[in-house]
Design brief:
alpha/beta, Rossmann fold, 7-stranded parallel beta sheet, 7 strands, 14% strand, globular
Length: 263
């Protein structure tokens, strides 16, 4: 299948590691021009070099960007426009907020999580829409969590704001369809990333068991019987963000090996 991504301008936020990096790599393999971002320049430099080498595509660059700062987002998108003249595909990604229950968090914690996990997506979308409308087409994929289908205990901040992403995307799918801009939300299940490893350690400590025991229990609850690999998640993201996708918009999909039981 031709994903129609060769030469397309793709921006991926929070892409120096984990799901963002894996997704950027898959876009690069399809011949896209990929702009990475994160707050850490050294990690970005390393990621861009590795993606260029693994994909054989030298059209991979980066920009330092703190996605909680509107001026950084504006500069990031402007770099893509200066480089390629437009933005064809936006992949919205952000690190998750801290684990904890309702009584754990103060107003400041809620505000930080809102700015990181919902407002940042709103701001990036606001920046790219004019370019996508001008060219009568674009693709937006928002990374969230499997909590968009089934809430996860001890992750109340994530449960709250990831659900907001779903509402945002569903509303925008109605508003932007006439401009051929498709927008979807993708939730990872237990994918083998640093974020998941960190959450596993927190859960294991709370239960008084080893992280290996916790992982074994979790894998037993996944029909496929294992954690997913970042590239498995990334391939789904790349299809939804490609121009081979011409009719899927406003949807929320989990990539979880069958773990979530919700309909």
């Amino acid at each position: 299948m031709d994903l129609q991504l060769k030469g397309k301008s793709v921006v991926v936020t929070a892409s120096s590691k984990g799901l963002g990096k894996a997704t950027a790599l898959e876009f690069a393999r399809e011949g896209a021009h990929v702009l990475l971002s994160s707050r850490n320049e050294e990690e970005l430099k390393k990621a861009a070099s590795e993606i260029r080498e693994e994909s054989g595509n030298d059209q991979v660059v980066y920009a330092v960007c703190d996605i909680t700062k509107p001026e950084d987002i504006q500069a990031f998108i402007q770099k893509a426009v200066d480089w390629n003249g437009t933005v064809d595909v936006l992949i919205n990604n952000a690190g998750g907020p801290p684990a904890g229950t309702f009584e754990t968090f103060a107003d400041e914690d809620w505000q930080k999580a809102f700015e990181l996990n919902l407002l940042s997506f709103i701001r990036t979308i606001r920046e790219v829409i004019p370019y996508m409308k001008k060219q009568n087409g674009g693709r937006i994929v928002n990374f969230a969590s499997s909590s968009i289908k089934q809430s996860i205990d001890n992750l109340i901040l994530s449960n709250t704001f990831r659900a907001g992403i779903v509402g945002l995307a569903k509303s925008l799918s109605q508003e932007l369809a006439k401009d051929n801009i498709l927008i979807n939300t993708l939730g990872p299940g237990r994918i083998a990333t640093d974020r998941v490893a960190s959450l596993d350690q927190i859960r294991a400590d709370k239960l008084g068991i080893t992280v290996e025991e916790l992982k074994a229990r979790t894998e037993a609850s996944i029909p496929i019987g294992r954690y997913g690999e970042p590239e498995e998640f990334a391939r789904t993201a790349v299809f939804l963000g490609s121009f081979a996708n011409t009719y899927v918009t406003g949807q929320s999909l989990v990539v979880d090996g069958g773990m979530v039981k919700a309909l």
